[in-house]
Q: What sequence folds into this?
C-alpha cells in the first residue's frame, strides 16, 4: 500500500509516540539529529536514544539538547563491549511505554514533518516504510545544528552550494505534493522495514520479540521487518513522503563474515517461517536505568 491511498489522521492522535534510534560516539552527528527533532511540527513525542556504549561527550550532548531545546529524551545506555545495536534497541523498546514507535538512526536528520507524517500514516496491521537522502562528505561536513534549526538543510540550493550533487537530491525535490504521492504509487521498490525510517506499534514489536540479538551490522533491520510481515503486517510505501537526511560517515564495523552470518540467519528464519525470535526482548531480565 502507498501513502497516497491513506487519509490523514487527526493532528492530535489518541496514542502516544516515541522516536527510537541508536548512537555510538558520534556527538557531532547526534547534535545535528537532535536539532531536527527540536523543530518538528508534531510536538507530542518522546525520544529514546539507544546508546551502544558512548562516552561522556554523548551524554553532554544529550543534556544540552534537553536544556536548550526542551526535548523529552530517555537515554538508555550499556557498556561498550563491541557492536550490540540489536541489544540496546531492545532495551530502548522496553524502556519506553509509547504506543507507536518511529525507528530511525543517529545519523539521520529528520524533515520537520517527519514525526507528523509517521503519525498521520499509522494504521493497525501496518508498518510505515520511509526513505532518505544520503548526503556526501562535503555537505555532511558543512551542516551545523543551527543550519538544521533554521531549516536550511532541507533547501536544495543550500545543499548544492555546499557540494551536494543535484542528482542526489532528486528524492528531496520529489518529496513535495503532488509528486511524492505519484512516485510512491509507481516505485518498484517494496515497502520494506528500513532502519533509518520506519514505524509501527510497540505491541507489534513485542509480538515478534524485538530485534534478533545474534545479528551484527548488515540486514538486521530487514530481518526484523521480515518477521513483522510473517505475522501479517503490511508495509505502507512512503519513501517519497517521509524523508530524512542521512549523514555520511565511515563504517569500520562492516565485515564480510558478519554480513554472511546475518544472511544465513535470515535464510534460516525464512525457511522455518520464524515470526518470534528466541534471541530478542525476552533475554532481558531487567530494564537498564537510563541516564
A:
Amino acid at each position: 500500500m502507498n501513502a497516497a491511498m491513506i487519509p490523514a489522521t487527526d493532528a492530535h492522535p489518541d496514542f502516544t509516540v516515541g522516536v527510537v534510534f541508536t548512537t555510538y560516539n558520534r556527538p557531532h552527528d547526534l547534535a545535528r539529529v537532535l536539532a531536527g527533532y527540536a523543530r518538528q511540527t508534531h510536538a507530542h513525542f518522546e525520544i529514546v536514544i539507544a546508546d551502544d556504549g558512548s562516552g561522556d561527550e554523548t551524554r553532554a550532548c544529550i543534556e544540552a539538547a534537553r536544556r536548550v531545546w526542551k526535548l523529552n529524551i530517555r537515554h538508555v545506555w550499556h557498556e561498550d563491549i563491541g557492536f550490540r545495536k540489536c541489544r540496546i534497541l531492545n532495551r530502548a523498546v522496553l524502556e519506553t511505554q509509547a504506543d507507536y514507535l518511529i525507528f530511525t538512526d543517529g545519523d539521520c536528520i529528520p524533515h520537520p514533518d517527519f514525526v507528523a507524517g509517521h503519525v498521520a500514516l499509522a494504521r493497525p496491521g501496518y508498518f510505515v516504510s520511509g526513505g532518505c537522502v544520503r548526503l556526501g562528505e562535503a555537505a555532511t561536513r558543512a551542516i551545523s545544528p543551527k543550519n538544521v534549526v533554521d531549516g536550511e538543510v532541507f533547501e536544495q540550493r543550500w545543499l548544492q552550494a555546499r557540494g551536494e550533487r543535484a542528482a542526489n537530491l532528486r528524492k528531496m525535490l520529489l518529496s513535495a505534493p503532488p509528486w511524492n504521492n505519484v512516485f510512491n504509487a509507481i516505485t518498484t521498490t517494496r515497502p520494506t522495514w528500513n532502519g533509518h525510517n520506519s514505524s509501527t506499534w510497540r505491541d507489534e514489536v513485542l509480538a515478534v520479540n524485538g530485534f534478533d540479538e545474534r545479528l551484527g551490522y548488515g540486514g538486521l533491520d530487514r530481518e526484523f521487518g521480515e518477521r513483522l510481515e510473517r505475522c501479517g503486517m503490511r508495509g505502507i510505501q512512503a519513501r517519497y513522503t517521509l524523508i530524512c537526511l542521512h549523514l555520511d560517515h565511515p563504517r569500520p564495523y562492516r565485515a564480510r563474515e558478519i554480513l554472511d552470518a546475518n544472511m544465513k540467519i535470515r535464510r534460516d528464519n525464512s525457511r522455518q517461517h520464524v515470526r518470534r525470535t528466541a534471541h530478542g526482548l525476552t533475554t532481558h531480565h531487567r530494564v537498564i536505568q537510563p541516564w
Observations:
- The chain has one domain: 3-283.
- The two ends are 39 Å apart (CA to CA).
- The longest strand covers residues 234-246.
- The CA atoms of residues 125 and 233 lie 5 Å apart.
